[in-house]
Amino acid sequence: MQHVFDGTTSDRAGAWLSVDLDALTRNYLFLSKKVGPAECAAVVKADAYGLGLTHVGPVLERAGARTFFVAHMEEGVALRKILPNVRIFVLHGFMPGCAEEMLTNNLLPVLNDVSQVRAWKTLSVKIGHALPAAIQFDSGMSRFGLSEADLDIPGLLDETLKPVLVMSHLACADMPDSIFSATQRERFLQMASRFPGVPRSLSASSGIFLGPDYHFELVRPGAALYGIAPDGGPNPLSAVISLDARVVQVRSIKAGDRVGYGLTWTAKEPTRLATLGIGYADGFFRAQAGQAAVWYQDVRLPLVGRVSMDSISIDISALPDSTLKPGDILSVVGPKQDVDALARTGGTIGYEILTSLGSRFHRVYKMEKVLAESI
Ligand SMILES: *Cc1c(COP(=O)(O)O)cnc(C)c1O
Questions:
Q1: Among 21, 36, 202, 215, which residue has the least CB neighbours within 10 Å?
Q2: Cα–Cα distance measured from residue 249 to residue 312, given in angstroms and rounded to the nearest whole number
Q3: Which of 370, 369, 235, 276 shows the shortest CA–CA distance to 13?
Q4: 89 and 117 share a domain?
Q5: Angle, CA of 133, 135 and 139, to the nearest 5°
């Protein structure tokens, strides 16, 4: 295993998260090439899916991303400070009364309902020219967006509205066999036909892999940029994160001894345990108890007992005695167990693991080479 130490803080850390910014660049270039000539935007909501917006944003811009999406206005304000020159869409639009601040921060709203459309038009009239925005359609997910009936409201779509993107979102894109994606695509086309010439966007990460029919003029991947598999099949993306935890202590217990809160695990035979400095406060879910494992080289070491706030107990009996000592490193997310595999042990998805990564990890951002290639 390779680790980058950057002096004493890293040496003190109980667990650390490595973010491979070159892998992030590779994933962006891969997706961008795959969808070309469509534009590949980058979704960086939730602090770039937990990886750190201040690091991720500039790397994506350098890779060629010109359009970014965040969920909340506040995230847009933060991103605008980091990237002054990109186009930033705010997926949730704006809260009542906040339209003007969107403008001050040079943010573009995704208009999701009639009230947002009206507020943006009112501001346009006040400013004296139509302000650009994206318009979202509800094509079947019933979450965000205008309905067909909304589009028929007299006067709603007049010249005080300046759509620069029309978009919708797929509910079942990660299930390639679902027929619902095709239904949504049809509805989307129908609604988009009212805005001739306006760039269209339907797909996030998984939708990209449904094929070119789903690319239109712009795609909006988030998860795939960060290495999450787009569907159940082989993952064509590069792993971006690895997560390692260090052994705080090693101990031996007797047959019949029990482990952790609630004493839910009992040793059937003499057992050697390592206590690792990672717990649910770090995004290692309690629901992973009983299923999860960590790795020492090629050896799978199962978690025993419950997940504590700051620690987990690992059965290390599979290793020869004295292999591990305090300070040694075990892999939680790495070559043997990717984010999606770890997620499955807790009955969840890679997205939730990434966005739950605690702030307590020592973080290492790796960037070994600047990518000279362009797209
Ligand atoms: C989160 C989000 C995305 C990105 O989704 P991924 O599955 O992470 O690629 C794209 N579009 C919308 C509307 C979203 O909410």
A1: 36
A2: 11
A3: 276
A4: yes
A5: 165
**CATH number of the domain where residue 265 is located:** 2.40.37.10
pLDDT in tens, the chain (375 residues): 344 444 556 788 889 899 999 999 999 999 999 999 999 999 999 999 999 999 999 999 999 999 999 999 999 999 999 999 999 999 999 999 999 999 999 999 999 999 999 999 999 999 999 999 999 999 999 999 999 999 999 999 999 999 999 999 999 999 989 999 999 999 999 999 999 999 999 999 999 999 999 999 999 999 999 999 998 889 999 999 999 999 999 999 999 999 999 999 999 999 999 999 999 999 899 998 888 999 999 999 999 999 999 999 999 999 999 899 999 999 999 999 999 999 999 999 999 999 998 888 889 999 876 554 443
Residues 257 and 166 occupy one common structural domain = no
User: For ligand 1, is residue 222 a contact (CB within 6 Å)?
Assistant: yes
Same domain, 172 and 303: no
Nearest CA to ligand 1 atom 10: 204
Q: 73 — phi, psi (to 5°)?
A: -60, -40
Q: Where in the sequence is the domain holding 171, given as residue range(s)? A: 36-226
**95 annotated as a binding-site residue:** no
Helices (H), 158-259: 180-192, 205-208
Ligand 1: nearest atom to the Cα of 351: 8
Whether residues 161 and 74 fall in one domain:
yes
**Domain check: are 78 and 201 in the same one?**
yes
For residue 71, how far is its CA from the centre of ligand 1 (angstroms)? 9
CA distance 340 to 190: 35
Q: Is 192 helix (H, G, I), strand (E, B) or coil?
A: helix
Ligand 1 centre from 215 Cα, in Å? 14
Q: Which of 81, 126, 261, 325 is catalytic?
A: 261
With tokens 């043997």, the residue in question is 336
Whole-model pTM over 0.85:
yes
221 and 252 in a single domain? The answer is no
149 and 204 share a domain? yes
Q: Whose CA is nearest to atom 3 of ligand 1?
A: 204
Structure tokens at 64: 């060629």
Query: Is position 261 annotated as part of the catalytic site?
Result: yes
Is the CB–ligand 1 distance for residue 242 below 6 Å? Answer: no
Q: Is any atom of ligand 1 closer than 6 Å to the C-beta of 219? A: no
